[in-house]
């Protein structure tokens, strides 16, 4: 839609000052007005089809109206809800979003040059800072552009947001315990903080039930890694009746490896994965998961950038509302009275 009318024309038709119109357009809360006045201004805005000139606003504020989101492996399906949250929140501020893959955020890259170019980006949402070298981090610290780290626990200048991974591990493990399983193992990465937190939640739930919490079965973050982890369990001779898997893609890989090995899910082995994705409902049997508040995480990151730019206070740390949600599907079942050895 093209921009129609001006704020001055809206003010004239609504019988108010231009500052009142500006307050309605920008969502400013500190300008006092009655509900009737606000409704009258909004009606004129709709009548004229007025669209704020975000480019001019950004120029006045010396901002680009663009934020960057940099993650590892853009194709990862767990990002879908997070991206939705980011785009919805960015839209409410009139911002555009640039997506980038962390693998290209390295010293000397064109992507990094544009990202750090003078005035080209108003804020950066960054995931997987472990892939970024010290020189790039130094560049980020030297710039006034706010950087929000997600899924970490430190961030630049303490600006980090993360979902409650320990709670997810507890939810997954308590589900299996409630089905009567006692020989439960955890499959996950060894060094990545979210996986360590999920293992902590698993361990807490096992200890609360008076059971042994075992070390994680190490794996990466993809279907092939999950398949390799199950083969390792098979070769070890251990025969758990249930697995908590720290990511949905590895859970899919365990599915495939179990089928190849003649292991019935959930008859011989119940499997639950942390994070949800459409593919979890497409495999057979469908994979039980723990859905995380990824949309809320994305929205909070955008709102944090907005608050920093406006000089307003903002809260960093865990995004623990809503809590992780159990999505029960077909890959988990009550423990059989006499489970069949693999």
From TrEMBL:
Keywords: DNA-binding, Transcription, Transcription regulation. This is Transcriptional regulator, LacI family. It holds the Pfam family LacI. It comes from the Bacteria. InterPro entries: HTH_LacI, LacI/GalR-like_sensor, Lambda_DNA-bd_dom_sf, Peripla_BP_I. GO terms for molecular function: DNA-binding transcription factor activity; transcription cis-regulatory region binding. Residues 6-61 form the HTH lacI-type domain.
